[in-house]
Amino acid sequence: MKSNWNYPTTIWVGNNRINEITLACQNLKITKPLLVTDKDLISLDFVTNVINIIKKKFDNLKIFSNFSGNPFGENVEEGVSEYKKNNCNGVIAFGGGSGLDVGKAIAFMSGQSRPIWDFEDVGDYWKRADVNNIAPIIAVPTTAGTGSETGRASAIINKKTGIKKIIYHPKFLPSIVILDPTLTVDLSPRLTAATGMDALAHNLEAFCAPGFHPMADGISIEGIRLVKKSLLNAVKDGKNLEARSDMLAAASMGSTAFQKGLGAIHSLSHPVNAQFNIHHGLSNAIFMPYVLSFNKSHIEKRIISICDYLEIKKDFNSFLKWILDLRKELNIPHKLSDVINEERFDLELLSNMALEDPSTATNPKKLNLNDMKTIYEHSMKGILF
């Protein structure tokens, strides 16, 4: 089944919609695209097939792939140089969260004279941008997690400080998104699990974030339901296209909803991703039950309000048990110390980084430095609040 959605942007959904990639270029008047994709993907057969589809229309296709997970500002700078050197006039961002984030950032920075860090998601920094020369973006996710394809930001690490920064502008939102579940069927069970938990974290934190945003709330509740319905199915049977489609939708819904806000799951994850190169979805999955139990006094009523819809017993502990059971079935480590050597963990440094993260501001429960230290310590030891 094929569908075309127009919220929050133009989204083409369905099996084999990747065959329409050159039509997307035509619609956006892109005649010299730069294909941006993770170097870990570039040699895979399904990516080669996509490249061949694009080259039928654009035999001079340029490709930038000199980056991997948790990209740096220097990767974006190099990509912008490639974009300008080859006189490109649009970007196809293809891959997982890193590929999409780098592609979007290249398209944005191709029209800017200021450094990328001047557009961090702080106050009105985004208004500093020259909006007249931002390149059009087509986004094609090959994982179902970050939802970067419907996001207005990119997560980029500042190598000098070691801090992962959220770079934001409304025009980071791609003009056309292609959600093709056939592109995700070869994703390993391990990455399917980690990216799926990332989608869950986005929807869950968006729903729990304070503030009045009924549209985000409605989207996030359905996103959580789709994860509950289909994540395990996608992990157990990667060829299950219905489950893969559900997870792609849940991922896009999560990033649409989290314009309302995120919370401490992400605040704690970003420093760990930057310092230890831990997969973002995996760290979100590890921190999730600790943050939920820490925030219980401020989110219990909201969580209980959606339990019926999720077919979970109507109390907070039953919801938390579902999260814990899901992590166990997905072979997600229970403790942070299962993936990081505690002796290498600078609690003071990482707690300060987490406190300064933009996601901290919309955590349901107001946070201080001691709270960050405490949640990290509980996560290391595997002790819920």
Provide a brief overview of the structure.
The protein is an alpha/beta fold. It has helices at residues 21-27, 45-57, 73-85, 97-109, 189-208, 214-236, 241-257, 264-276, 280-294, 296-310, 316-329, 347-356, 369-381; strands at residues 3-5, 10-13, 33-37, 62-64, 90-95, 137-141, 153-158, 163-168, 176-179.
Describe the structure.
The structure is a single chain. The protein folds into two domains: 3-183, Rossmann fold (3-Layer(aba) Sandwich), CATH 3.40.50.1970; 187-381, Dehydroquinate synthase-like, alpha domain. 48% of the residues lie in helices and 11% in strands. The protein has helices at residues 21-27, 45-57, 73-85, 97-109, 189-208, 214-236, 241-257, 264-276, 280-294, 296-310, 316-329, 347-356, 369-381, and strands spanning 3-5, 10-13, 33-37, 62-64, 90-95, 137-141, 153-158, 163-168, 176-179. The strands form two sheets. The protein has a seven-stranded mixed β-sheet, sandwiched between helices. β3, α2 (45-57) and β4 (62-64) form a beta-alpha-beta unit. The longest helix is centred in the middle third of the chain and has 23 residues, at 214-236. It is globular, with a radius of gyration of 20 Å. The N and C termini lie far apart (45 Å). The model has no long low-confidence stretch (mean pLDDT 96).
